[in-house]
Structure formats: C-alpha cells, structure tokens
What does this fold into?
Amino acid sequence: MTNRLSKKGVERMFDAIAHRYDFLNHFLSLGVDYYWRWFTVRKLCINSKSLILDCATGTCDCAIEAIRYSPKKIVGIDISLKMLQHGKEKLEKKSTTTVDLINSSVENISLRTGCFDGAMVAFGVRNFLYLEKGLKQIYRILKSDGRFVVLEFSKPGHFPIRQLYFFYFRHILPLIGRMISKDKNAYSYLPESVMEFPEGDAFVEKLIQAGFRNISFHRLTFGIVTVYDAIK
It folds into this structure.
C-alpha cells in the first residue's frame, strides 16, 4: 500500500510539477490523452444551456475541450493553485470568459445544491483524499438527471499489453517524469495510486453508494484508461 498523501501533500506535489504537467501528459501518453479527453467530454452531451463542473481541472484541458460545445458556463476547481494559474494562462490565450476557476478540494465544494447539468473529472478522482465524500459532493451539486463522467487510469487485463503496461508504468514513466519535472515523488506516486484505485465494477459500486444510477463504463486503448458514465 502507498502512503496516502495529505491534502497539503497533494497540493505541493501538483504545484511542483505544474510547469511541465501538460508536456508530460502528452509526451508520456504519446498524445493519446487528447482522444481520451475528447471521448470524456463528448459523453456529457453539452449544449448552450449547460452549466458544467470540471473537478480537479488542473491546467484546464478538459474545460478547454468542453468550450468547443458552447456551454453556458464551466466552473473548474482544483486543489493546486499553480495548476490553476497555468490553466488561466491557457484560457486567456483563447480569449474566453466561459470558464471560472476556483481553488478548492472536491470534498469541500462550496457550490449550490442541484445547480449543475453535468460534472466531469479526468485523472483526478483517485487523488480525492476522501473518495466517498467527494463523490457525494458531486452528486449533491448536480441537477436531477445530471450526468457525471469520470476518466481515470485502469489496468489492462490481457497479455502482453498488461505486462508492457506495468513495466512502463512502474519503471519508465517514473524515470522520465523525474528527469523532466525534477520532482522525485510525483511520478512514483502516480503508478502507486493507480494500482490502489478501485477500478471497474469496484468503482461502479462506489458511484452507486453515492447515489448515482444508470452507470456504465468504457475501456479505451487496450484498457489503459476507463471512462465511467453515471446519472443522478
């Protein structure tokens, strides 16, 4: 078992790698992360009246993808102020006012109950300090019939992809991550947190316990990531 980071620990870790986060995401995934985010955002069925919450928004990649569908408003929240600062710079380059950013943890969302049409989180749900509390908060802020979509790493199940994935994730990715980001902990924490995350049916059960229904999930790119789709 990995040592779960505290709220401050998670914040410090992402602050430390914020300046190289986007480059590493695209480089380490060989650019496939663009497709993963497109698939995730498309599941939200956004229209011009949609109010969307982007949890653990990071540098706003999913929020920027969602802008293409012309929603009424997107609210992005993240625990790392430096990640948000990089996201803000990207939004300013696009000259958009569609996205509002809030420095907050998901577990302590100070937003009105039942006001969002949809919510999403990409590669952030496994970092929730209290997973059940975070899911219940997201459930609370959604309107009735609101949709929640989660993109998260998972573990491939078939030979030889599973063996190659584990080797890359445990040895190659942390090495490259440390070399480029100059942070010795972040890209070691990543594979450890993925191995512990309750994926597939186990995560579906967590969503059910939080109140969600009509839950399905889709494995992408040989099962490297999974997209979960749920309704309030």
